[in-house]
Protein: Inositol-1-monophosphatase
Organism: Streptomyces beihaiensis
Amino acid sequence: MLDVALEAAARAGAFLRDGRPDDLGVAATKTSAVDVVTEMDIASEKLITDYLAERRPDDGVLGEEGAATEGSSGVQWVIDPIDGTVNYLYGRPEWSVSIAARKDGETVVGVVAAPMRGETYRAVLGEGAFVNDRPARARVAPPFGQALVGTGFGYLAERRARQAEVVGQLLPHVRDIRRGGSAAIDLCDVAVGRLNAYYERGLNPWDFAAGELIAREAGARTGGRPGQAPSGDLTVAAPPGLFEELQGRLDELGAWHD
Ligand code: IPD
């Protein structure tokens, strides 16, 4: 499954990097006027699902642009054909292809390809995380006030206003905040130590499935609200020590609700 995920992500990544039209525009909008889809999101999802159908015909798929099949094997592929579509639309480099395999509901393989960085992040459950062929390790937790924290914003106006309030309450207490624009890359940045921590409300499974496993296998803790798994309510990733403090503060700030 790892080989299949790596090959699918490499093919989609090369297609997106080399084939981006100069006049790329918005093909459709989804949950709001700023939640955009391009023709390349749709083509990338088709490329990935066609390849999976050939290599893993009995598996199910769940893709951001609508792919949804049940399958009969107990394996489900969770696909974000472009994570960071707005960056891709504007020709900004921080976008990725995210592919995870879940077996009986548990994520067992995660691959995030970031072609403009020349990096692919990968993990297999219980076998550690890698960036290209090097082991990936999250940083040791710094004191809260020295943490570089990544986050992101959803596409609904009310949710965004609330997310801005939460980030405004956090900013005075940390080293700084980053909004990269691809949740999958943000999670991998925790895995390789380019961020100390990351959190976001409102993610979909295709945004976080692969990156969450990669961050966890790199030594970070991941979760949602205290005692819960990462979900659309809240996804948090950070090394032990920092994780609990950030999760607690986010819970107090009500970062998990609109
Ligand atoms: C988005 C990105 C972004 C995050 C949004 C996601 P998309 O995914 O991951 O960083 O803040 O919540 O929806 O729409 O580009 O696949």
DSSP finds seven helices and 15 strands in the chain. The pocket of D-MYO-inositol-1-phosphate is lined by residues 64, 80, 83-85, 152-154, 181-183, 200, 202-203, 207 (CB under 6 Å). The chain has a mean pLDDT of 97. Helices lie at 2-19, 39-55, 85-90, 157-170, 183-192, 205-217, 242-253.
